[in-house]
Amino acid sequence: MTAWLAANLVSILNGLAIGFLLFILAVGLSLVFGMMDVLNLAHGALFLVGAYIAAALAADGPSWGAFLGALALAAVIGLLGGGLLSAMTEPLRRRSHLDQALLTLGVALVVAELLQIVFGDDPLGVPAPPGLDGSATVLGATYPTYRLVLIGVGAVLAVAVYLVVDRTRVGALVRATVADRDMVAVLGVDNRRVKVAVFAIGSLLAAVAGVLGGPVYGASVGLDSTVLILALVVVVIGGLGSVRGALVGALLIGQIESLGRALLPDLASFILFGALALVLVLRPRGLFGSRTGAAQ
Amino acid sequence: MVDRTLSRRKLLQLLGAAGAVPILSAPVLSACGSSVGGGGGGTAPGGGGAVKVGLVIPQSGVYAALGTDMQRGWDLWLRQHDTKFGNFTVTTVIADEGENPQSGVPAVQRVLQADQVDVVVGIVNSATALGAAPLMAEAKKTLLVANAGAADITGKARTPYVWRTSFQNAQVAAAAGPYLAQRNIPGGIFLIAPDYAAGTEVRAGFKKAYEGAGGRIAGEAAPPFGTTQDYQPFLSQIRQSGAGAVFCFFAGAEAVRFVQQYAQFGLKNTTPLYGSGFLTEGGVLNAQGDAALGVQTSLFYSDRLDNPANRAFVDAYRAAYQAPPTCYAVATWDAAEVLGRALGSATALDGDSVSAALGRLGAVDNSPRGSWTFDGQSPRQTFYLRTVDRVNGQLGNAITTSLGELGQV
Description:
The structure holds 2 protein chains of 2 kinds.
Chain A: H1 2-36, H2 43-57, H3 64-89, H4 97-119, E1 135-138, E2 141-144, H5 145-167, H6 169-179, H7 181-186, H8 191-217, H9 223-238, H10 243-263, H11 268-282
Antiparallel strand pairs in A: 1-2
Helix pairs in contact in A: 1-5, 1-6, 1-8, 1-9, 1-10, 2-3, 2-4, 2-8, 2-9, 3-8, 5-6, 9-10, 10-11
Chain B: H1 2-37, E1 50-57, H2 64-80, E2 84-85, E3 88-96, H3 101-113, E4 119-122, H4 126-139, E5 142-145, E6 162-164, H5 169-182, E7 189-192, H6 197-212, E8 217-221, H7 232-241, E9 245-248, H8 252-264, E10 273-276, H9 283-288, E11 296-299, H10 308-321, H11 327-345, H12 351-359, E12 373-375, E13 378-391, E14 394-406
Parallel strand pairs in B: 1-3, 1-4, 4-5, 5-6, 7-8, 7-9, 9-10, 10-11
Antiparallel strand pairs in B: 2-3, 11-13, 12-13, 13-14
Helix pairs in contact in B: 2-11, 3-4, 5-6, 11-12
């Protein structure tokens, strides 16, 4: 057992790093979908915006100023972008998922094209901030320092989001809106404002995830759609509108993507969607999704 | 009165019809117009006719950077030669290939049918090249592939109308095989390339050449193409295999991530990284940064190649575009060069005449990559082992040694 652990420690650590990053990305997507039935396919584009901001600010060499500046700028742009997307999808709220999907897909394509025009066709690297750009030795295995820090930052953010949604009045309102938004409206709460707020915060987290993920994934054309697919898989596995589901789903996908691929390299391209299919067969509403889609 | 009303109505109808005709027939007329300028234009060599070329390159999507380099190579050659192939004045029509055959094949069809071009040049995606081959055969016009590397294009799916001035995927990898086998690397080599057609050709080509020369493969991996963001599981596999070196094939954003993660997970210091040259060619190299230093790759070109033709080419290219040329620019420059030579002796612009002239070419001795010839319809050329270094703050591919000449594999 200890020998197995030593051999696979790097994969397990890496699964945690990717899992927490995926959680930050996917939690907004999950809440907006669970709460307002808006399928936001522009979520991946917000991630890519964050990644390109990180790359652009670090173009003159890595520095903490550039990295923290990128985080702040991405947060502001994410907030504004989320508010804008919320306003754009508002007229479609009584229409089908397909209409919203078409609209947000169109937004995603336009944003991706604009990014390509502004930042060029070449893939860009994002250096980790100074001091975190090296590698650490963990029980004899080499592991990038930045990813170790990412695990810590991701865990703190995950706990913070969980506590806000689970333990505060605002969180209770969000959960209530996910469970039954008509009942919340009857109680005198304008649930459109709840939607705007959740949309904006969720988009902020997606853009911030783009900056945090920059040193791992870089910034390149097409990255938006690959992370969007991962986020959708997390949401489907975890269950719509559930923060706990998004967290468990993200950590699970993280382990599948790293430990799973390391143990079963021949099935690398299959195990992600294999796990998705398994969950859909056994728990069609996801691990933490309930019949009404109530938040937990 | 009645007559007048009728006649007025008739007049209006006539006017309407007259107005509609130009609108309806506009595409037809303009297509005819362009074929006057191109297609039927010059048939007699030496008579000073015109030739219309469709340059089909990616202007959008993940390969757009390659498209830019290819167009630069093309434009540069034309500027250096008065926009003339022999006595034919060249008109270029550019079409966006996009990322895949769903956009690339219709682009080829468009330049053939709407623009009535005589020759098509370009094509990055191998599936697009294979999909365009029947269109070229049907139109009896020549396609010069300036990038796409699938063996089948000039191999199993060969038609007389499709020629290539770039490389074969397996050829680039096979060139490094005998050299690495002679190095007697302890523990053998780990082979990694994505699980799509080009990656499979690279693995097969390298394995055959390397094992044929007495090398030992320590392990193989095929990460999912296009969806692998993180190579850690495969890097762990490499470490556990005990391999003494790695040979890989990645391009674009995947090349950036693989090279960076290879360094981050500490393999760079213990296990030398080799690969097909696209790993460190062009824009990806700057994105990789210091992680790329010391990476060794095989390719038919480097802008540091020391021959008179290349020195002149690099100077002209840098002056025009303020950037070093890449193998993508060279392959397209060479496509223009062989067309220039072929149309000097071709009797007509149809595919049979152009292909026959291409077959008679002999050595292309003024290419920046060094002299090369057609072996079948794809280049026989010299490959080089290149090592990434930093000179005056700029990353580049220094020539380490020649890997010898290689034809189609």
